Amino acid sequence: MIKKHHDNPIIKPLHVKPSFEGYKVVGAFNPGATTFGDEIILLLRVAEICESKEGYVRTPVYHFENDRSFPGIMEFRTDDPDVSLKDTRGVVYKGKDYLSSISHIRLARSKDGVHFTIEDKPFICPVDESEKYGCEDARITIIDGKYYINFTVVSEDSWATKLATTEDFKKTDRKGIIFHPENKDVTIFPEKVNGKYIALHRPNNSGFGKASIWYSESPDLLHWGNHQCIIRPRNIKWESIKIGGGAPPVKTPEGWLIIYHGKGDNSLYSLFCLLLDLNNPYKVVRRAEKPLLIPTELFETEGFFGNVVFSNGLVEKDGQVYIYYGAADESVGLAITSIESLLKSF
Questions:
Q1: CATH number of the domain that 102 lies in?
Q2: What is the DSSP string of 206-225?
Q3: From CA 91, how far away is CA 246, in angstroms rounded?
Q4: In this predicted structure, what is the pLDDT of residue 60?
Q5: By C-alpha distance, which of 300, 331, 251, 288 is closest to 1?
Q6: Which end of the chain is more exposed for a tag (fewer CB within 10 A), N or C?
Q7: Ramachandran area for residue 30 (φ above 0: left; ψ -120 to 50: alpha; else beta)
Q8: Is the peptide bond before 156 cis (omega within 30 degrees of 0)?
Q9: What are phi and psi for residue 197, nearest 5 degrees?
């Protein structure tokens, strides 16, 4: 039904040039994907830390001045009583949080969908305080010939979702935050339904339930309403913690095909198929009982955050579906299947 490519992982951190002197790439993963002319384009999430220095804790930072951003490095002496290591992901100095790594979005190009040339400089990187702690997990939707890129931004105000557009993958036009904190895993449909733009999103749930997948509508891709929760995590080991959307939906005769992720027991991430009604996408037609993809290979089970497969990008090529996925928050894997096989997975 689905086959992991024999060249996996097709992109590793060592394939990516650091964006700033003194930075080190530790992750190239969770790519958005699309076609552009005769190319397949990936928008990689590139995570960087600082090169180590004995006696110091070092963190990557961005400074903003006169509508420009500047990457840099902050150093704290390890014996400074005001320094405390929060966990592997951050440091606290005088009560203020800093991340041990910061992400940006990097562009990669391929003719065959397997071998990619990765650009040397960031495509989307932090430009203001709302992106202070990084830009992550891009998704790309083509609507009427224009490419809409939504991505997660992280700041002192937590995480949110921004939107940008491009027509050439050289320049972008940022549209601002479209889903306020705390909301991510946004997937925009490739066409209007009943005269409205449609998106799935995943607000955080700090109340009585678990983070779930929601539906929303918009007249202009900027203002979103009619929010409805359409599926919640099931009481199964694959979804015991939360679920969230993946790549933009694919239109099929049987409905809108979605590949979503579940976080389950022992923080293991897997992928599932979901089918939504063509005319009323808030209605679930079918939902797979078994995972489409689970971590089995070493590069998926071991890494920065092991036992993770996470997809926010796929393309259709030569009658097949190329599913690009992040593995262990570190590298990129490729799995190949077909629409027919995916529809039979329910």
A1: 2.115.10.20
A2: -SSS---EEEEEESSSSS-E
A3: 30
A4: 96
A5: 288
A6: N
A7: left
A8: no
A9: -75, 145
Distance from C-alpha of 185 to C-alpha of 179, rounded to nearest angstrom: 10
pLDDT at residue number 97: 83
Domain region containing 156: 3-343
Residue type, 210: K
- What is the rounded CA–CA span in Å between residue 279 and residue 256? 9
Task: Mention every residue, 6+ apart, whose C-beta is less than 8 A from residue 205.
Answer: 211, 212, 242
* Cβ within 8 Å of residue 267, ≥6 positions away: 241, 305, 307
Q: pLDDT at position 88, please?
A: 62
Q: What's the CA gap between 59 and 33, in Å, rounded?
A: 30
| CA pair distance 138, 124, nearest whole angstrom | 9
| Number of domains comprising the chain | 1
**10-residue averages of pLDDT along the chain (346 residues):** 96 98 98 97 98 93 91 92 78 86 97 98 97 97 96 96 97 97 98 98 95 98 98 98 98 98 98 98 98 98 96 96 98 98 95
Question: At 149, which amino acid appears?
Answer: I
Q: How high is the pLDDT of residue 29?
A: 98
CA angle 175, 179, 180 (to 5 degrees): 105
Provide the Cα torsion 292, 297, 299, 302; round to 10°.
Answer: 100
Tell me the C-alpha distance between 275 and 255, whole Å.
6
